[in-house]
Amino acid sequence: MNEIAIQIPSLRYDNPSKTATSFKIGNSFCPAPAYIPEIKGEEDLTVLLENMHVIPVGNPILIPANRWTNLVQPLYFQKRLIGNNPIQDFIQNYSLIFYDPPEFFKGIYGEELLEYALSGKPESKKNFKTKLKNKDLKGAMALIPPFFQPFVEAQLLTISKSLKIETDIQHNGDVYRAWLDPRISEYYRTYITNNVKTALKSPNSTIIPPVPQLRKDTPDNIKRRILSSNWATSRICYETKEENKQIFPYFHLYLDLNIFDNDDKNNQITAFSLLTEGITHNNTYNNYSGVALTLVGYESQLDKYRSNQLKNFISEIVNICHEKTPSLPVILPRSSWYGLYFADYGIQAFSSLLNGNLKYTQGSGGTISPNDRFGKVPIIDLCINVDIEYVKNHLSELDEFPQVEGLPTIPQPEYFENEILWRMKFSKPLRLIHVEEGKRIRKSTLEGTINPSKHYFSKSRHRYLQNL
What we know:
This protein has 19 helices and 14 strands. By secondary structure, it is an alpha/beta fold. The chain has two domains: about 10-105 and about 175-355, TIM Barrel (Alpha-Beta Barrel); about 110-175, no CATH class. It has a six-stranded parallel beta sheet. Helix 12 packs parallel to helix 14 (about 305-320). It starts with 10 loop residues before the first strand and ends in a 10-residue tail after the last helix. About 45% of the residues are buried.
């Protein structure tokens, strides 16, 4: 086997005070703070393909690891898009981060998880439904990749109901404890290896591995799984490297902020200990591009007046990562405006789904109101998400939304009658205002402004961040 590739430092300081940084993914450095759009499916990918003029070259994009290959089949999109091979341009222009929605591995998501496990292939879902309806559970589960099987089995009652199939199953299992199923140990490596091989086909890419969530009641055997999953991913990246290319993954810590409650055995110290042990573990393969901190519970903690705890927690995570040699960047997937706020505390990037949500939606589409199907529209400077009724009222008074170069300022009349047009041509493209916000914060930082994010939000109408 070849000598191990040496990871070039992936965090760069861009001014003498070390307040402005850039971070590296693959061969590309990206100025911080950067907004990382997250793709869920075809609609989101199409929106980004049609708005590449707004996204800087080299900017990271979070992509659904188990759906990506199916999403980028060229013939699948040629009927919908104008231009010469836009997917190829997209892959060449941007740094791709392979990421599995972490909520799938700790909660009940039913049909949403099923579709993801089957890579979004309608025919596979149809076959699964047919076998399940015919009481051929073994045949149905054989269609599911082995790594996903324990998580799917734990929610077969919800899946059966969403597929309108009568079942003898009385209750769902414990999705979280599915991490302890022997099949995870056996097939985690296979799943990650396939993702790494796919990532190697892109010029600039990395991977954030699926890991169990750390919460206040997490038992020791699942905490060990957090470390072993990250370490296994780093080793697989080394062993799967090509002659002139190696993927350096992100160390992933998926955390429920209920650990701040301090009424159980896990707390902030547990998170610091896991992170420190994880990124400093002394073996040949333990090399990372950075640390991805996926947090759950921003609003609930701020509702409990724990802003100082949250600030100190982020600061300590950043200190642990930046003081390591070489320094590691910190990104906050699924953080939206909260992540931008913590740019003042040294994080390098923040992300959200294009609908603005911090996770996939649980439950069936039938529970979504007509207005919600149009999605939320973000407004720059105000830092709020509004619905279609707000937009109607706003336009009757002000004619258009604040201008951001390359993005729409007013929806066309036909959009109001078509939820798909509304999302693809108006609400989801406007999520890219976060790119502009990141640029503004960086500019202010380079100009010497102290706490530019706090200053920005102080003039907003954000429920939690305005007065934080």
